[in-house]
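Lab meeting prep.
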Amino acid sequence: MERPHCLDNKKLSNICYLIRNIKPYLSIYTLKIIYHSLFHSIMSYGKIFWGNSPHSTISFKMQKRAIRTMMGCGYRESCRGLFVELKILPLASQYIFFFLLFVVECRNYFTSNSVICDSNTRHRNDLHLPQAKLCTRR
């Protein structure tokens, strides 16, 4: 299985190395700016398309490595509190956020259940999920 071209983990690894080397000389605020300008920009490119791929776990591990390096934590320490402290969304949360923004911006391309069925149900204002037949049986 070929990985998507936008998941350039070598670049992310190089940025983790950069953060580790400049950490003693900079404040957390400056490291966070560097994280957002270099790491986050590469990681979030095309996220709406590849964010659910199996290869995204490698990018998430790289993100955790960068966060731990910025905060000076060990490689086995939990990152959950660090994400909250730095106010940075984890990769999966960013994928959900970008996908929701896409749906809100392109709402006119989706139909609601009220258009498909006239019944007055509690799900009438939800978006209609079309059925897709991916394989044909003979």
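Slide two material, second protein:
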Amino acid sequence: MSRSPLVCDTTVLLYLGRIGCAHLIPALFAPVYVPELVVLELDMGRLWRPDTFNPREWAWIQVVSVSQDAINALPPNRLGPGERSVIAYARSQYGCVAGLDDLQARRLAEELGLAVVGTLGILLRARPARLIPAVRPLLDALIAEGFRIDADLYQEVLNLAGE
């Protein structure tokens, strides 16, 4: 199976890490890039919750710098620094998928012609790849960890997973 490169935002790493499924990322994507600004956001998260995912602890992650010029070249937006750095980096790497959950960030990335996957999309890719036996328990675990998903999307994900 050929794997696409992925550049990951905070929420994808945070929530897959919290439910013990960060290993799905390198099983589906390679290489995996994490911008320095995303690493900083996760560092800040560890001040409140020490078990917050630390990208520096995983050999499959390449921490990357994103130039301010690349970020400034994005169309005007109200995204956070991590999301902007993910989109800017994905634009600079041929075939790189942007790992984003925020709806505004996903829309901007798609408008710029980028492929996008979020936490739920990773779970949906993991199921047919036989990396997980079922999606429902992981969806429920995400929700228990504070991941927000409305009832319609929850059902749509289960339908797509064949559950």
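Talking points for slide two:
The radius of gyration is 15 Å.
The chain has one domain: 4-132.
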